[in-house]
Amino acid sequence: MRPETNLLPVPLLREISTLLAKDFRLEWRQRAALGGLLLYVGSTVFVCFLSFSLRGGQPPAPAWNALFWVILLFAAINAVAKGFMQESPGQRLYYYTLVGPQAIILAKMLYNALLLLGVGLLALFLYTIFLGNPIQDLALFVANLVLGALGFATTLTLVSGIAAKAGGNGATLMAVLGFPVMIPMLLLLIKVSKNALDGLDRGVSQQAIITLLALNVIVAAVSYLLFPFLWRG
């Protein structure tokens, strides 16, 4: 039996930083996957631009908002899906002998959150170029984008681990398990970003933001507690 994380001589934060550095190096070596993700975001935004330009103008704010989050949701699924499923059982066994399962799940969540935040900012930049920028409260929108990246990362990372352990068609299983969990979070994100587009008082979005924060904390805590049992399965 492998000793628990709190008995290891290496602190948890050092394990997380080491795993983060490993993930960034792997992403840099496998730039085709990252390029495909960025190509998906850019081409989808451009197709939306072509569709609305045929109608003679920019999309209305509700359509702009809905399309933005739909693009980001599918980009998140594609980005996070490869986190665990690209690792062989032998690699997972090797990690099991070196670091604790808590460090693995926290490092994956943090890495995916940073990746999705970068993708979200890129999508916002491309949206601004091709489809205009109707946002009246940019600070609230960006804060909501950060919460969305964290929420997508925490939820989909755990689902990706479950799908990788289940074997078979992991991407399909991840989509089936992930969508029911993501829908409530997606509705809250769309609501807050719509308030930012309309320039409403930030107090109107306060309850939704608190709920998003609570969801992120709960999912991260549940992942931290349950992933060791999944890891040993």
TrEMBL record:
Ranges annotated as spanning the membrane: 32-54, 66-85, 110-132, 138-159, 171-190, 210-231
GO cellular component labels: membrane
Keywords on record: Membrane, Transmembrane, Transmembrane helix
GO process annotations (BP): cytochrome complex assembly
Membrane topology term: Multi-pass membrane protein
UniProt-listed InterPro entries: Cyt_c_biogenesis_CcmB (IPR003544)
A Pfam family this chain is assigned to: CcmB
Protein family (similarity comment): Belongs to the CcmB/CycW/HelB family.
Record-given protein name: ABC transporter permease
Organism annotation: Hymenobacter coccineus
